Amino acid sequence: GKPVLEVRDLEVTFKTYGGTVQAVRGVNFDVYKGETLAIVGESGSGKSVTSSAIMGLIPSPPGEITRGNVQFKGNDLTKLSKKDMREIRGVDISMIFQDPMTALNPTLKIGDQLTEGIRQHQKLSKAQANEKALEMMKLVGIPNPEERLKQYPHQFSGGMRQRIVIAIALMCEPELLIADEPTTALDVTIQAQILELFEEIQKKTGVSIILITHDLGVVAKIAHRIAVMYAGKIVEIGTKREVFYQPEHPYTQGLLDSVPRLDLKGKPLEPIEGTPPDLFSPPAGCPFAARCPHAMFVCEKVVPPSERLSETHQADCWLLDERAQR
Ligand code: SF4
Ligand code: MG
């Protein structure tokens, strides 16, 4: 079918005293109905900036979307006014952040926090909004929802708070949920429960999910497709099977080599020697050239083209191009 979201040629820069940081450098991907696309990368790879750009949350200044577009329901989100974007955010596209405590207001009852947005956006009566809140509390598996709606955030465990954050995100029945490291702040058993919850919710509602993470275990568990980001670019994208079992980009191969297959859980992505390039002055050629065990002469000079490996699989590497002389 047609994608729910189409990101094309997205470029985001930040002006600082030290110069201009090219945080996202021409990113392309689609998100389809009912799927989970994981965007994987080290910190500073541009994955969170990409999601902020989709949500219209790039602080400007110093940030700016300098190129590209984001198509969603017939709109280019990068062109919408702040006011129009507010009507999409939390309604058609919702976001879940890492720390459930900062996402919740400690002074407001859970019930009020659940119903605030939907009453504003959909003009529901208090009773209708409460009804919906109860439904969502049940959907995310919170016991005794009627009593719990009258309580405050501190009366819930970390895992329960993240369930509430998810319930709030789902109140307006969004088509797209963006979850940025949604389980990083939680302990391992709770993490697993929250990931199962995402899967359950997706089955029941058909919501599409963009999952931003550095945790390959999380990816292995719930992603359908994976985009690997490095130095502001997607260097490889494919189905979970393609990226995990037939990785073609040396960076992806390095990530996966560093992790024992059966123990993907909770592994940070810092396995390859060296550091990512300075995004104040990104390299002219392949961003991975300085760390790549296969780097050739051309790699340092010319940006590698995207090679299509299958209907669903793509990687940006000169090794895949017949024109490159080894
Ligand atoms: Fe390595 Fe060259 Fe491929 Fe970049 S383009 S990943 S440097 S082989
Ligand atoms: Mg981040």
Automatic annotation (TrEMBL):
GO MF annotations in UniProt: ATP binding; ATP hydrolysis activity
Source organism, top-level taxon: Bacteria
Domain (ABC transporter): residue spans on this chain: 7-256
GO cellular component: plasma membrane
One of the GO BP terms on file: peptide transport
Protein topology in the membrane: Peripheral membrane protein
Keywords: ATP-binding, Cell membrane, Membrane, Nucleotide-binding, Transport
The keyword Disulfide bond is assigned to this record: no
Coiled coil: none
Classification via CDD domains: ABC_NikE_OppD_transporters (cd03257)
Keyword Iron: no
Subcellular compartments: Cell membrane
Protein family (similarity comment): Belongs to the ABC transporter superfamily.
Protein name: Peptide ABC transporter ATP-binding protein
